Amino acid sequence: MIAALAVLATMPGVQPQWNWTAYPVSEEAAVVNPAFLAWQPDFLLSAGFTMSDSAFERVDRASVAMPGMGLSGYWNSGSDIRTFTAGSSLPVIGGAFSLGTSYTWFDPTAHSDWDGKSFWILGLGARPVEWLSLGAMRRGGVTAGGIEHGAEYRIGASVRPSGPDITLSADVSFIDSTAGEGWSGDPAFSGGLEVRPLDGLTLRACGSEHGFSTGIWTDFGNLGLGASSSFDDEGEYGGTRGGVRITGRPRENLVPERGRFVRIVPGEFTEERTRGFFSPCSRSFSEDAMLLAQAAGDPSVSGVIVDLRRGCGTQAQAEELRGLLADIRSGGKPVVMYANSAGNMEIYLSSAATAFYCHPSGEVALSGLSATGLFLRDFLDRLGIYPDLLHVGEYKSASDMLTRSDMSDAQREAETALIRSFELELFSRVTAGRGLEPAAVRSLLERGPMTPEEAVGAGLVDGIAYQDEIEDRIESETGGSPRSEDLGTYSDRQPVSDEWGPGEHVAVIVATGFITTGRSGSAFPIGETMGSETIADLVERAKSEPGTRAIVLRIDSGGGDALASEDMLHALQQAGEEMPVVVSMGAVAGSGGYYIACAGDSIFADNMTITGSIGVISGKLVFAGLMERLGIASETLTDWPYAGMSSMLSTYTDEQREAMERMIDDSYRLFAGRVAEARGMTFEQVDSIGRGRVWAGADAVANGLVDRIGGIEDAVLCAAGMAGMEEGLPEIEVYPSPGFFGSLPSSPLGILGLTAGGEAGSVLDLEALRLLQGRLYLMQPSAVR
How many angstroms separate the CA atoms of 559 and 389, rounded? Predict the structure, then answer.
């Protein structure tokens, strides 16, 4: 807190040095314009002192602030005056405007003319854009010792012509008589300048007809120090005030940190944010990826440590992570990885490392990929359950797991192509990153599992170490002592942004799970569900949020309900009329997952993304055989051919089957038509690559289903560019975010696993059976590992 010259010193006590109504410094907001407490980013504690002729006199003020609230005090033993100020504020209209008030009272025990006096300050603030801040305030009047101190009205504006490095401020104020006789005196004008020539260094100056002040402020992360001096209108020195400030989150650092190593655990990455009961909210994979992209260019980060003991996440996450780590490595920073044991994905990820260590008792195996299909027909026959299912497209194998006992030729063809495309990415990266010849990689594939010592000799591992020895290895190789911190700590230690306005950002909507109508949730056995109403609400919320310039839809879904997919596509297309919509495909964006991707102005996928599966299935499971075995009889009476069509106690009649086939043919034509319209193709072109076939990301680019290979970072940068945002990594806002109580069952049965709640409502275990009676854009679960 820096305070000195009073432009209109009508009240005793401390006067704010930087009396800028539209740009009060954090420590002084409660006494300058309490509306700006709404933009206080974190907890703040400050203390100030007075100096004269370079000699320390006394500590005379202190303040505490947090978002929306502030409290400050001033004391002067010489004049027996002590004041206390408490303020609060409320942001409105998406945070672009604010209202605030503060109350100042004089200590009634100080034995002066001001004992027990008080006044209110009412304030307004507006930061509608990043370059303009507006403020207005009214401070109440007080009569003390026979002297009238009229109410003060002040309005001001601050502008940033080239960003936060330069701020210009101007204010005009008026004094009103407390006797109601109108304005007293002429309006007073003042102006100010703030310049930030270096990170962590701020120079300020302000002036009026009464004099001027100059000051300097320095920040060292969470600690700030500064001082200022005041002069009267004839240039006579009036004294110096200094201050010290401690904040909950760091500011820019005049002495930048060095030598930090960021530690990540890929196996803990999740596409959606999660929160346990009364626990902090975890980050999404999108946020983790953007933090790593930021670390690549952060001079305070000297390297990255990757803990692979919990795995690598999905194959798409591993691919995106590998690309981010390769960027960090190409910038000259070491990337050190550690694993207890290493399989295909660990070895793939380690190809971006400068050093890869394995536990002495671990196992290393570059074994190649395989795909496994699960087929339940024989099991259902034994139970007396008949899968009366239909599908469009010979590759649409989602229903095969229920209707067949083995893999069809079409599924075998598609799965084989998928494996080979994935293996091309896997082996090419391992070959190049580990410096191996293709023949050597083939030899390793045929060799099978090996010990860590053998893996070192084969060039797959760089060394053997225990986990607690990794930092010692780094120290011996770099000559410095690394200070490691996890990605969450690194995120928390990012300097607080001082941008004005709502804050331009890209909204990232995570769309993951089995697609259903209604609200998102989960249900056994289909797992997490993605509700059409939930996604539509998130899209509406994201595009309506002040500062949202573009939307990125992050998809990780094998599809689901056709009607729900259409509703989500519709909501995204409406958003696309107002701003760019870019799609980032994760591990899977198939069938309904690809359907909603058609809303994207540009579609990104990873090489190891599974996508496509343009096709439809429908039908029902018939339990008549099971009922008969259990000794339960049933009989249906009706005069109409389609009345019992949805019954699970009888198979479709010929008429009903023909009707179902017409319906799913129509759905297929709708699906293929949506793709043709979005991708600039004909129906015949879509049909030639559709009919239920799945594709790897690289192949989907080749056949036109996807625009580019890239991860979430690439999609965000693309969206920001399409929206005309400034170059560099943009801010992102991720949706959805779990509530305070986390992801809890919405009913007592959910605790037993019988139901599971989402944002609203729940999905019963029979939901999967009900869905089969509708039309599904659903792909066969594909286990490629």
Answer: 17
Q: Which of 343, 552, 540, 558 is nearest to 461 (CA)?
A: 343
Name the burial class of residue 301, with classes exposed (0-12), middle (13-18) and buried (19+) by CB atoms within 10 angstroms of its CB: buried
d(CA 518, CA 310): 34
What is the token pair recorded at 498? Answer: 């001082």
* Sign of the alpha-carbon torsion through 541, 545, 551, 553: negative
Q: Which helix (H) or strand (E) holds 330?
A: helix 315-330
What does the alpha-carbon distance between residue 419 and residue 430 come to, in Å, rounded to a whole number? 16
Contact 391, 399 (CB under 8 A): yes
Q: Which long-range contacts (CB under 8 A, 24 or more apart) does 443-452 make?
A: 444/366, 445/366, 445/367, 445/368, 448/365, 448/367, 449/363, 449/364, 449/365, 449/367, 450/363, 450/364, 450/365, 451/363, 451/364, 452/358, 452/359, 452/360, 452/362, 452/363, 452/364
Element (H, E) at 192: strand 188-198
Q: What is the pLDDT of residue 745?
A: 42
pLDDT at 763: 37
pTM score of the predicted model? 0.89
pLDDT of residue 340: 96
- pLDDT beneath 70, residues of the chain: 1-14, 53-54, 77-79, 109-112, 145-146, 177-185, 277-278, 524, 739-773, 782-783
Is 736:750 a contact under the CB 8 Å cutoff?
no
The β-bridge partners of 263 are 305, 486
| Angle at the Cα of 775 from the Cα atoms of 771 and 777, rounded to 5 degrees | 95
Contacts of 570 (CB under 8 A, 6+ apart): none
How remote is the C-alpha of 356 from its chain's centroid? 30
